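User: I've been trying to design a sequence by hand for this structure and keep getting stuck. Would you show me what you'd pick, starting by listing the structure so we're on the same page?

Assistant: Good idea, let's start from the same input. This is the structure you sent:
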């Protein structure tokens, strides 16, 4: 149906009557600029000008524009400013992230207790684990992931990665832990330690408690693989930069509710085993409960992903097919890594991840050694870690609410700089307490607190504020930076950065500590130098974040994938 326009032939009293005009059919486009009968003449199509010029001043034109409903496609109704498709993506992704971080918190707290309190072990084993076990396994996984990405669909690749984790954690609680006495070469390692000396206590402890160390590495890889590669990789594929700027910070709100609940779950099982009668394996009972929750969470994650692939992803693909893209030949593993290494954008992203890993590791290992000295009993250690996770969740929850304001008012660049500044400031406070403990001792004594306990609390505060700024600002910034990249660079670059660079940063911090221990005799003696290294690493981090901010803004302009209403 074509719109018609007519002029009323009546005139106000006292004016000369106009001759009756024949109604004219005027051909217009569906997207006509006319919004009102009183629209300005200059904005109207030329066919309207003739009848309007016939009307004398004082004569009101009455135009009726009628368009067929089928000519103009009706936009979908929005809820809270976003289309239904956006909510169909965001709500399931938020639930996935909740379950993933619920599992990760349980695994993180459990791996520390298992390894640090194992026979013949301690916090000193962690640098060796991260350098000589975790990093090689991460490299092997990344190479395998890059090869599988060339032959499997993204859906099959997701299942191939997450299902082995679920099976392992279930098998550890049900099989490996109960058989630990049979599987661990305790007598051999004790003789080896007598022969080689205490300087080799760390590597020997890895061999002695190899199933616990395997659990430690798998828990670390859960953070790198499931959190960073699988979840964020999938989220980046189905969201836009505008959606990410609005909802990525909010994902952490639900995730940190999970952090609070999982921290309390760890505390609950720790207290349960403390009340068991003698002769009952408390750790076995705890692991059964915790790993049972981890397996259930893994099944829920897989089910949500399956539903999204069936209900939401096809809609997104149909929309993106309208934008024709030149297909690219997939790169081999060697070509992929060569390309990524040559990209300044990827290098800056990698610098951010490595710098964070080194910085947090320089503080965290020293802090955990203080925790063991304060809480030598595994039950007390586990209760403290559960409370620590709960406090981290509460503080991060508040930071998540604040992060949306930071992104909107100050932009991506400022948000990316807050985490290194926060980590540097809190790290200085922690190292100052360790270095000048004699100065603070009278003040702490008046408060009924020992320097050791004060170091544990200040280290906990340092970790809480550093991790909360990471979860609420650093992670969303890093994930947004992937979105404007093309699919292959996004997939393989993310795998290389998050799976290799993340443990590489932690291993780098561990290597620094190993050299310091060998050079200065102990971790305590090397504390001043660790503080200086922390300062240098954070300055490099800040420089890379500033450089990436400029490149990110340019890439958004080139792709048209921008954060509407958000400063760059």
């Amino acid at each position: 149906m074509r719109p018609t326009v007519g002029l009323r032939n009546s005139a106000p009293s006292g004016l000369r009557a106009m001759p009756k005009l024949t109604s004219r059919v005027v051909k217009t486009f569906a997207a006509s600029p006319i919004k009102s009968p009183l629209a300005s003449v200059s904005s109207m199509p030329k066919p309207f000008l003739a009848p309007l010029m016939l009307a004398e001043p004082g004569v009101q034109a009455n135009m009726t524009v009628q368009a067929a409903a089928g000519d103009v496609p009706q936009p979908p109704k929005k809820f809270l400013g976003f289309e239904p498709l956006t909510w169909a993506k965001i709500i399931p992704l938020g639930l996935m992230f909740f379950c993933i971080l619920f599992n990760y918190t349980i695994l993180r707290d459990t791996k520390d207790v298992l390894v640090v309190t194992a026979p013949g072990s301690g916090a000193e084993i962690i640098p060796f684990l991260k350098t000589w076990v975790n990093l090689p396994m991460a490299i092997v996984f990344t190479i395998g992931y890059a090869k599988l990405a060339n032959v499997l669909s993204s859906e099959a690749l997701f299942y191939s990665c997450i299902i082995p984790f679920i099976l392992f954690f279930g098998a550890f609680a049900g099989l490996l832990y109960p058989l630990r006495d049979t599987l661990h070469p305790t007598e051999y390692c004790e003789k080896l330690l007598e022969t080689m000396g205490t300087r080799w206590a760390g590597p020997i402890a890895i061999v002695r408690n190899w199933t616990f160390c395997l659990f430690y590495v798998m828990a670390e890889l859960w953070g790198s693989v499931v959190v960073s590669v699988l979840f964020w990789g999938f989220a980046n594929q189905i969201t836009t930069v505008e959606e990410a700027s609005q909802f990525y910070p909010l994902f952490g709100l639900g995730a940190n509710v999970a952090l609070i609940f999982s921290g309390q779950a760890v505390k609950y099982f720790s207290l349960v085993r403390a009340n068991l009668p003698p002769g009952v394996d408390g750790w076995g009972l705890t692991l059964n409960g915790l790993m049972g929750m981890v397996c259930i969470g893994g099944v829920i994650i897989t089910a949500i992903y399956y539903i999204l692939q069936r209900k939401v992803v096809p809609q997104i693909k149909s929309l993106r097919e309208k934008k024709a893209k030149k297909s690219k030949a997939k790169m081999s593993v060697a070509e992929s890594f060569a390309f990524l290494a040559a990209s300044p954008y990827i290098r800056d992203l990698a610098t951010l991840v490595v710098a964070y890993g080194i910085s947090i590791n320089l503080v965290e290992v020293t802090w955990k050694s203080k925790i063991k000295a304060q809480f030598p009993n595994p039950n007390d250690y586990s209760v403290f870690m559960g409370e620590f996770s709960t406090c981290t969740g509460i503080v991060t929850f508040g930071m998540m609410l604040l992060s949306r304001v930071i992104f909107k008012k100050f932009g991506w660049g400022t948000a990316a700089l807050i985490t290194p500044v926060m980590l540097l400031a809190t790290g200085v406070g922690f190292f100052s307490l360790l270095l000048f403990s004699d100065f603070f001792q009278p003040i702490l004594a008046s408060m009924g607190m020992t320097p050791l306990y004060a170091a544990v609390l200040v280290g906990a505060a340092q970790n809480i504020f550093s991790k909360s700024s990471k979860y609420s600002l650093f992670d969303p910034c890093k994930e947004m930076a992937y979105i404007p990249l093309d699919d292959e660079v996004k997939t393989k670059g993310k795998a290389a950065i998050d799976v290799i660079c993340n443990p590489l940063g932690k291993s780098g911090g561990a290597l620094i500590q190993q050299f310091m221990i060998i050079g200065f005799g102990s971790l305590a003696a090397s504390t001043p130098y660790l503080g200086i290294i922390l300062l240098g690493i954070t300055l490099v981090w800040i420089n890379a974040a500033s450089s990436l901010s400029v490149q990110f803004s340019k890439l958004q302009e080139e792709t048209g994938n921008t954060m509407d209403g958000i400063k760059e």
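That's my pick for every position. To get oriented when you compare it with your attempt: The two ends are 46 Å apart (CA to CA). The chain has 18 helices and two strands.
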